[in-house]
């Protein structure tokens, strides 16, 4: 049976190392260099012939550089890899942070049995109903109308949020205008406390200032994006480690086991 070989791009080596530790592996040897003309060079420092290879690289920050580095690494490992997802028909698994989110809620919010899960937009309905079903609590939605990108004009709350603790759940937050407006809307409707749980915390522009000035108990994000610098300026930000999810997904893929089973049945 092939061995697992795990490589890290240069953008998030901390998360890659945590995943490797959970799998009992050493990270594969890879050297990336950027020349003065901005060209990127990748050198794989070990043989991967016949092995199962996994690469961890984030898609934020210097996104163009990170994407090109990832594609160059793939090309170095599989010399005839010409396209990205959507242009080939091999299986692709989306990984979800829901198991780690559920665990954080149960361990850190004492009133979670009396909480309500809220989506800050209608597009997140499936996400919040899944979490509310697993917790056996109610959910609500906020319908938002935008003037333009990153600027919300009006919000309409759908659902009764009087008294319970509200947990806003979204896939990402950039400038945080939406979640901060949503928090104000929930508090004015009678919610006692508001938490925000986000898979990817981009936190650009005025995001940190907005979070500091908003009435959140905590803004919780996963470590798909490094948050050490942001946490120095905002005590409300807390981080969920998802290395266990990545490690389990790699192990299941390697063993030919169901990855979707991880999100429905496996307790982390």
How many helix segments? 9
Biggest sheet statistics: 7 strands, mixed
Determine Rg (CA atoms, Å): 20 Å
What is the name of the CATH architecture of the largest domain? Answer: 3-Layer(aba) Sandwich
CATH topology of the largest domain: Rossmann fold
Q: Care to count the β-strands?
A: 11
Tally the structural domains.
2
Spatial shape: globular
Strand order of the largest sheet: 7-6-5-8-9-10-11
- CATH class of the largest domain, named Alpha Beta
What is the H-and-E element order? EHEEEHHEHEEEHEHEHEHH
Helix content: 25-40%
The span between the termini is 26 Å
Q: What fraction of residues sit in β-strands?
A: 25-35%
Output the structural class. Answer: alpha/beta
Taking pLDDT < 50 over at least 5 consecutive residues as the criterion, the unreliable ranges are: none
**Rounded mean pLDDT score:** 87
């Amino acid at each position: 049976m092939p061995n697992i070989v795990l490589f890290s791009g240069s953008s998030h080596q901390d998360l890659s190392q945590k995943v490797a530790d959970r799998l009992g592996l050493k990270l594969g040897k890879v050297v990336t260099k950027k020349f003065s003309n901005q060209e990127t060079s990748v050198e794989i420092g070990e043989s991967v012939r016949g092995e199962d290879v996994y690469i961890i690289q984030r898609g934020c920050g210097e996104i163009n550089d990170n994407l090109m580095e990832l594609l160059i690494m793939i090309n170095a490992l599989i010399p005839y890899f010409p396209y990205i997802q959507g242009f080939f028909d091999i299986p692709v698994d989306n990984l979800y942070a829901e198991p780690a989110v559920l665990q954080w809620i149960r361990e850190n919010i004492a009133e979670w049995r009396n909480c309500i899960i809220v989506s800050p937009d209608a597009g997140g309905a499936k996400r919040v109903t899944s979490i509310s079903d697993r917790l056996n609590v109610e959910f609500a939605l906020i319908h938002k109308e935008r003037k333009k990108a990153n600027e919300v004009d009006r919000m309409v709350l759908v659902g009764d949020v009087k008294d319970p603790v509200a947990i806003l759940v979204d896939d990402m937050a950039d400038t945080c205008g939406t979640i901060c407006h949503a928090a104000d809307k929930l508090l004015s409707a009678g919610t006692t406390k508001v938490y925000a749980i986000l898979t990817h915390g981009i936190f650009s522009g005025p995001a940190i200032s907005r979070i500091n000035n908003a009435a959140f108990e905590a803004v919780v994000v996963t470590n798909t994006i490094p948050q050490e610098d942001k946490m120095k300026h905002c005590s409300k930000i807390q981080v969920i480690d998802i290395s266990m999810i990545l490690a389990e997904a790699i192990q299941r893929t390697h063993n030919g086991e169901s990855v979707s089973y991880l999100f429905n049945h496996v307790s982390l």
